[in-house]
Amino acid sequence: MRRILFLVTSVLMVFSLGATALASTGKKGPDRTIADIVVASGGEFDDNHRDFDILLNAVITADLAETLASPDIDFTVFAPTDLAFVRLATDLGFTGEGEAAAWEFLVGALTTLGDGDPIPVLTSVLLYHVAPERLTMDDLLFDIDTVDTALEGASFDINRRTLVDNDPDVKDPKISFRKSNKRATNGIVHTISRVLIPLDL
Questions:
Q1: Span 2-192: which CATH code?
Q2: According to the model, what pLDDT value does residue 200 have?
Q3: How many angstroms separate the CA atoms of 181 and 37, rounded?
Q4: Handedness of CA 42, 15, 70, 128 (dihedral sign)
Q5: What DSSP state is assigned to residue 59?
Q6: What is the C-alpha to C-alpha distance for residues 41 and 9, in angstroms, rounded to an integer?
Q7: Residue numbers in the chain where pLDDT is lower than 70
Q8: Rounded CA gap, 63 and 60, in Å?
Q9: DSSP output for 111-158
Q10: CA–CA separation, 39 and 30 (whole Å)
């Protein structure tokens, strides 16, 4: 238990340091990258469950921020909102309140799944939210049935607005029409209502 608490504290400290540095480089306007879209949330836990504070935590902790800022990659990110992460924490047994408490709970759960190290599992989950090509809403609704992801050998099905992941027991996410098709110089972001799960928990 002491080791898990230490790891949770360490992960939160990594986020705190990384978010400050990354937020200072965030851009707005037509030349923004996917990283800029995520950074626009600010990264501090708050009462706005519709933005990407927890996702920003996760991206920095997994050391993927530089990848999302790369101008040389063109990809699609299915971005869970803060509420999506809170819903996942609740599905896993979280009974607290707030984004900070949910994030801390998830780090603990990832630490358990990773046999003491949350980073590999977190990285796999995040890569499962990335498609290595630019997919518009029209592509997702009318042209494809399966999305291949950046997590090696992993994909998920799409049925209209619903993304069908690899855990049949957890409710599947839906794409938000209103908040999706956020275009960046290096890809596109679709907001989703829950976290995609790459394995059967």
A1: 2.30.180.10
A2: 76
A3: 12
A4: negative
A5: H
A6: 22
A7: 1-30, 201
A8: 5
A9: HHHTTT-HHHHHHHHHHTTEESS---HHIIIII-SEEE-SSTT-EEEE
A10: 15
pLDDT at 22: 46
Quote the pLDDT of residue 30: 62
For 21-71, write each residue's pLDDT tens digit.
444 445 555 689 999 999 998 889 999 999 999 999 999 999 999 999 998
Q: How high is the pLDDT of residue 28?
A: 54
Q: Are 156 and 125 spatial neighbours (Cβ–Cβ below 8 Å)? A: no
In whole angstroms, what is the distance from residue 135 CA to residue 155 CA? Answer: 14
User: Domain map of the chain by residue range?
Assistant: 2-192
Residue 127: C-alpha distances to residues 32, 131, 153, 195 (Å): 21, 8, 11, 12
For Cα atoms 151, 155, 161, give the angle at the middle one, nearest 5 degrees: 125
Note whether 167 and 199 are within 8 A (CB): yes
Q: For residue 162, what are its two tokens?
A: 């619903």
The pLDDT value given to residue 177? 81
User: Tokens representing 22?
Assistant: 């990354």
Residues present in the chain in total? 201
Strand, helix or coil for residue 75: strand
